[in-house]
Design brief:
The chain has five helices and eleven strands, in the order E-E-E-H-E-E-H-E-H-E-H-E-E-H-E-E. With 199 residues, it is α+β, with helices and mostly antiparallel strands. The protein folds into two domains: 119 residues, Ribosomal Protein S5, domain 2 (2-Layer Sandwich); 73 residues, Alpha-Beta Plaits, CATH 3.30.70.120. The longest helix has 20 residues. The model has no long low-confidence stretch (mean pLDDT 95).
Length: 199
């Protein structure tokens, strides 16, 4: 899966109509609705504010007065084709006086989203397993250096009676084999909740 790298707006012009594609990262239906309302309020004079959003669990779209299936659906198809999740888009159209026809609208709305995604960039989202390691203070620096040198993602470090490292890994079995070898079996990994990491 992928997510948008950053929120932003990208504009194209087709046959004198302006198409402004606003893109935002969202995680819920409520966040998407709030984003849509904010853009509609800002561009209340526009001819149309067509919307689409997609999360891992749900997706929907709206043509906002354009002929059925000519705006929201092609916008959503771009998100689906690009495997984007947690992404909401609004394409604001300021009509330029030239009718585009159904096919022209489908291409225009799809192109507006595709070009915005290209301009803003994407990140790959991957599921990682969490492992917590507790080390003695005098061994913690050596262990942290070894973790980072081996390319493991140290998400958090806590200092108490010992030093607790939270490590994210895509392959927990390989990690535990590496850990046993690196510490001579002195440090064990405690399983945590899986998390998604964007990179």
């Amino acid at each position: 899966m992928k997510v948008i790298r950053r929120d932003g707006t990208h504009e194209i012009e087709i046959q004198r109509s302006r198409f402004l594609c606003h893109v935002a990262r969202v995680t819920t239906d409520a966040e998407a609705s709030e984003f849509f309302a904010r853009v509609r309020k800002e561009h209340w004079q526009a001819s149309h504010n067509c919307t689409a959003f997609r999360t891992a669990d749900t997706q929907r779209s709206s043509d906002d007065g354009e002929p059925a299936g000519t705006a929201g659906v092609p916008m959503l198809e771009v998100l689906t084709r690009r495997d984007l999740v947690d992404t909401a888009v609004v394409v604001t159209r300021y009509y330029g006086g030239i009718k585009l026809g159904a096919g022209g609208l489908v291409r225009a709305y799809g192109r507006a989203v595709a070009e915005a995604v290209d301009a803003l960039g994407t990140l790959t989202r991957e599921r990682h397993e969490t492992r917590r390691l507790v080390s003695a203070h005098d061994q913690a620096g050596k262990l942290e250096n070894a973790l980072r040198a081996a390319g493991y993602h140290v998400a958090n470090t806590e200092y108490g009676h010992g030093v607790t490292f939270t490590v994210l890994t895509k392959d927990p079995d390989d990690f535990e084999v590496w850990l046993a070898a690196a510490t001579g079996g002195a440090v064990t990994a405690i399983r945590g909740e899986p998390v998604d990491l964007d990179s």
